[in-house]
Write a structure and sequence with these properties.
Elements lengths: L10 E5 L4 H17 L2 E8 L7 H24 L4 E7 L2 H11 L4 E5 L11 H11 L4 E4 L11 E5 L7 H14 L2 E9 L6 H24 L4 E8 L1 H11 L4 E5 L11 H11 L4 E4 L3
Parallel strand pairs: 1-2, 1-4, 2-3, 4-5, 6-7, 6-9, 7-8, 9-10
Antiparallel strand pairs: 5-10
Helix pairs in contact: 3-4, 7-8
Length: about 280
């Protein structure tokens, strides 16, 4: 990134299949690339498994070539450097291979691919990628809410070490975009053994949002702190809706051993249900 914020975005991978979801993700990738001086790699995957004939495969390849050409023109028109690749194989495997082969720092993809286009449904692919990717994954719904460039970024945190990389990305993107960051910690509801435990949860939540605020002040980013009580993924989604957030940035794994708040499952639920684009940042 252009500021000295500790996070580098050199190359963004955008898997494309001609769907509206992939197109929406490309818009976000262009915004991030523009803000961070990154370049974009467009990847189309021909999934030959389940194709009935060579003719069908040839048709699909030709179609994807057109999709890639159109997308590359869009990226160039925005003044962002672009390269392209078309591979054959299982989409999630080809996407993960590309991350390794092309030194990718970020993946941006739609949560839903071409409906009825069984051979490349980005939807199920997106969930696999969120689970397996070694780099952050930005998922965007077809009719995602929010504006670009980002103005309001929500950073949910449970204060665990696993949340640190996501907190960094959230604050650093806030710095790049000149956006406000909203630190959110959710005290999970559920049976509590004693009042001490409840107080401990409140304390953890407070120190979690304080940590984001501290990083914000380090980089000149305004951070608003909020503590909510309830079911984590619901509170995160409600908060994003309530402030008309443009992006939510969260980690993949939370406090181990605290069953009622494992960020892993929270991240997957948020990806599945959020109208706001979601950036999932791996813990490592």
């Amino acid at each position: 990134m252009s500021h000295d914020t500790g996070i580098e975005v050199g190359r963004i991978l955008v898997p494309i299949d001609g769907s509206d979801g992939a197109s929406a993700a490309l818009d976000h990738a262009i915004s991030v690339a523009d803000a961070t001086d990154a370049e974009i790699l467009l990847l189309a995957v021909v999934n030959p498994y389940g194709m009935s004939s060579v003719t069908e495969r040839t048709e699909v390849e030709a179609e994807l070539e057109d999709v890639v050409t159109d997308a590359a023109a869009r990226v160039q028109d925005a003044g962002v450097a672009v390269s392209t690749a078309i591979e054959a194989g299982f989409p999630h495997e080809e996407i993960l291979n590309a991350v390794e082969d092309h030194s990718i720092d970020l993946i941006a993809m739609g949560t839903h691919g071409r409906s009825g286009f069984e051979r490349f449904v980005i939807g199920s692919v997106a969930e696999k990628i969120v689970r397996l990717s070694p780099v952050p994954v930005l998922t965007v719904r077809t009719k995602a809410r929010g504006e670009r460039p980002y103005r309001d970024i929500v950073v949910p945190t449970d204060g665990s070490d696993a949340a640190v990389p996501a907190e960094r990305w959230g604050v650093d993107l806030g710095a790049e975009f000149g956006a406000a960051v909203h630190a959110l910690s959710v005290v999970p509801e559920g049976p509590v053994r004693s009042s001490e435990t409840r107080a401990a949860y409140e304390e953890i939540a407070q120190s979690a949002v304080d940590r984001v605020a501290a990083r914000g002040s380090e980089f000149g980013v305004d951070v608003e702190e909020t503590i909510e009580h309830g079911v984590p993924h619901r509170e995160i989604i409600d908060h994003c809706t309530g402030i008309a957030a443009d992006l939510v940035v969260l980690g993949t794994h939370g406090r181990t051993g605290v069953e009622r708040f494992i960020l892993g499952s929270v991240a997957e639920k948020v990806v599945r249900l959020s109208e706001t684009p979601v950036l999932v940042v791996p813990s490592k």
